[in-house]
Structures are given as structure tokens and as C-alpha cells.
């Protein structure tokens, strides 16, 4: 099943009609989650950027069995660590951000913020300031999926020209994180995760596995065949100060001026099989992954070219910022 947008001949008239209807029917302070069919811009560039009004944003927006939260408040006094995320699934927190007394206790004991930040550029985390919070660039949704994109560039000013972070949820079990980093000169890129202590690194594939009594989690960052991206466990001193956590690191092999990093989080029942396979896909206008779930392929694609013209990845074409193609077998009926 493929999801596409309206063609350019009708998009402008439909958008105008929808805007007029919404203006008449909705209160002035209402917000609307537009579907992918009406969100794609035909003028090129990126959608307008809005400040995030809460300490976090989540996908899916409505709280359900699973949810992915990113913390957006860059103030040093924030209760949660900026640009960290957590995954909640079936009443469990599979990944948790550091917050409140835990974060304060670590800092008061002499611990550095670099040890707990999730993104390090040349070994340094974000610059924390109330003015450096993330900004919401876009939300979109289609049948069976939901997407949001954030701009975190302000918090890395002086280090990076651009840092955007997007999250795509594909029902019922996939979160796909897309980090795009652009720097004026080659920089080292590291991602840190503070996972539960029971998280293990697969010795063959280099991905992360967490198994609980209710829900399991698998984290994979697909890379090129010649240069696979593997997670490893660190001893940062953080673990001894805050028991129950393990520090996992993903590190680029060489310094670059641009990174496009796809990380897949698969959430599945504890009694289910970890029947997943991941492959990085790269094209001239998009990047993404092909993810096999129980042998059936799902393709996710993130645009890397300006809006205005269709983007494509391995023959799959889409008009917006993101494309999703889920294969669903057809069964014959007698």
C-alpha cells in the first residue's frame, strides 16, 4: 500500500477550500493535524517552523499502547534532559530520559552533561539556554503512520549549520528516527543512549536488545555494507552513580561535514519473535530503510531534497517530506 499526495493541479484549490471550512468551523485557538495529502508544500524549502510550547513532543500524538517522546526544553533548569527521548510501551518505560532528582544528583556529584547528552559533536553536547529549545517543523499523518520533524540547530550553534531530528511511527511496532547533521567543517558524531542495565549488544549485528516480561525492544542503526554502524557498551562512570542504567554508544568511523543517520526502534510483545531485518537505502533525493517484519517489507523514506518535486527511493516516489510503503499480502477468497 502506497501513500501519495494530491497532484499540483488540484492541491492549491483543495488547500484553500479546507482552510476556509476550518476557519468557519473551528475555534480560533484550535490546532489541526493535517494528513499527508494536504501537508506537502509546492513552494520548495521546508515548512514554517514553530516554537514547541511544552517540554516534549510525542508520536503518535494521541497516547496509545506505544509512544515516542522527545524532550525539547533547552533550559538548564528543565526537569528533563534536552534532546533526549523515551519510549513508553504497554505501560512500561523501555527507554527513559534523565529527569528531576536523578539528573540533579548526577550533576551535583560532579558528573558532566556530556556523559548524559544523547548527541555529541566533537565530544560536546548542546548549549543549554532557554532560547535554544527545539522548534516543531512539521507534523503529518497517513493511514497507519504518523510523522513529526524538529529543528535543534539553535542548541548546536557554532558547531553545526543544521541539526534536524524527525520521528516516524508505523503501526503497530516501528519508530524510525532520522537525524540530519550538517557542519561547516568535518566533525565527529556520537549518539549515546542510557538504556536499562539489562540491555545487551548483539555480538553479530551490533544492535541493541532489551527483553522484559511484557514488551521487548530492538534498536538497529543500519549502515552501508562496507561500513556497518554498530552499538557498543561504554563505562562512563554514569552507571555506578545511577544504578539500573547502561550507557550505549554509536560512533561514526570518520569525521564528516554531513551525517544522515537512520535508527529503527522495533517494539514487540515479550512472547513474540524478534523477526526483523533492516537495510539502509540511499538515493539522490531521499534516504530511508527497508524493514522486514515477519518476512514482509516496509519501506520508509525521508526526503533529502527541497520540496516542490517528487522524491524517490528505489523506485518508490513520494511528494511530501516522508513516504511510507507497507506491503500487505492479498489473500484469495473462494
Q: In short, what is this structure?
A:
It contains 4 helices and 23 strands.
Q: How far apart are the first and last residues' alpha carbons, in Å?
A: 23 Å
The overall pLDDT, averaged over residues, is 80
The CATH architecture of the domain at 43-272 is Distorted Sandwich
CATH topology of the domain at 43-272: Beta-galactosidase, Chain A, domain 5
Helix content class: 10-25%
What does it look like?
The protein has a domain at 43-272: Beta-galactosidase, Chain A, domain 5 (Distorted Sandwich), CATH 2.70.98.70. The protein is 10% helix and 42% strand. It is built from 4 helices and 23 strands. Strands 1-7-8-9-10-17-14-13-12 form a 9-stranded antiparallel beta sheet. A 4-stranded antiparallel beta sheet has the order 2-3-4-5, with no helix packed on it. The longest helix is centred in the N-terminal third of the chain and has 18 residues, at 8-25. The protein starts with 7 loop residues before the first helix and ends in an 8-residue tail after the last strand.
Describe how the helices and strands are arranged.
Blueprint: H1 8-25, H2 36-39, E1 50-51, E2 56-59, E3 66-71, E4 85-89, E5 92-95, H3 100-108, E6 119-121, E7 135-142, E8 145-151, E9 162-170, E10 174-187, E11 189-196, E12 200-201, E13 208-211, E14 215-220, E15 231-234, H4 238-241, E16 245-251, E17 256-269, E18 276-282, E19 286-293, E20 296-303, E21 311-313, E22 316-318, E23 322-326
Antiparallel strand pairs: 1-7, 2-3, 3-4, 4-5, 6-11, 7-8, 8-9, 9-10, 10-17, 11-16, 12-13, 13-14, 14-17, 15-16, 18-19, 19-20, 20-23, 21-22
Amino acid at each position: 500500500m502506497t501513500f501519495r499526495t494530491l497532484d499540483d493541479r488540484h492541491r492549491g484549490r483543495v488547500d484553500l477550500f479546507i482552510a476556509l471550512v476550518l476557519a468557519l468551523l473551528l475555534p480560533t485557538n484550535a490546532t489541526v493535524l493535517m494528513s499527508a495529502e494536504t501537508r506537502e508544500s509546492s513552494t520548495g524549502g521546508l515548512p514554517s517552523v514553530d516554537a514547541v510550547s511544552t517540554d516534549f513532543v510525542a508520536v503518535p500524538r494521541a497516547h496509545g499502547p506505544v509512544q515516542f517522546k522527545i524532550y525539547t526544553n533547552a533550559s538548564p533548569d528543565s526537569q528533563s534532559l534536552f534532546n533526549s527521548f523515551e519510549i513508553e510501551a504497554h505501560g512500561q518505560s523501555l527507554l527513559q530520559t534523565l529527569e528531576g532528582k536523578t539528573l540533579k544528583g548526577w550533576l551535583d556529584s560532579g558528573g558532566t552533561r556530556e556523559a548524559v547528552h544523547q548527541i555529541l559533536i566533537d565530544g560536546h553536547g548542546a548549549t543549554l539556554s532557554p532560547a535554544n529549545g527545539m522548534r516543531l517543523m512539521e507534523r503529518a499523518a497517513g493511514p497507519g503512520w504518523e510523522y513529526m520533524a524538529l529543528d535543534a540547530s539553535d542548541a548546536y550553534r557554532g558547531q553545526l549549520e543544521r541539526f534536524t531530528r524527525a520521528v516516524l511511527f508505523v503501526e503497530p511496532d516501528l519508530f524510525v528516527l532520522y537525524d540530519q547533521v550538517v557542519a561547516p567543517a568535518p566533525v565527529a558524531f556520537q549518539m549515546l543512549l542510557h538504556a536499562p542495565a539489562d540491555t545487551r549488544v548483539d555480538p553479530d549485528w551490533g544492535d541493541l536488545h532489551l527483553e522484559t516480561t511484557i514488551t521487548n525492544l530492538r534498536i538497529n542503526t543500519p549502515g552501508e555494507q562496507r561500513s556497518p554502524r554498530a552499538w557498543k557498551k561504554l563505562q562512563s562512570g554514569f552507571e555506578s552513580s545511577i544504578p539500573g542504567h547502561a550507557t550505549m554508544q554509536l560512533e561514526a568511523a570518520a569525521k564528516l561535514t554531513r551525517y544522515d543517520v537512520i535508527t529503527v526502534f522495533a517494539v514487540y510483545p515479550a512472547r513474540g519473535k524478534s523477526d526483523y531485518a533492516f537495510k539502509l537505502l540511499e538515493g539522490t533525493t531521499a534516504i530511508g530503510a527497508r524493514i522486514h517484519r515477519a518476512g514482509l517489507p516496509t519501506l520508509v523514506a525521508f526526503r533529502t531534497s527541497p520540496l516542490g518535486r517528487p522524491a524517490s527511493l528505489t523506485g518508490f516516489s513520494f511528494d511530501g517530506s516522508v513516504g511510507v510503503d507497507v506491503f500487505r499480502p492479498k489473500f484469495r477468497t473462494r
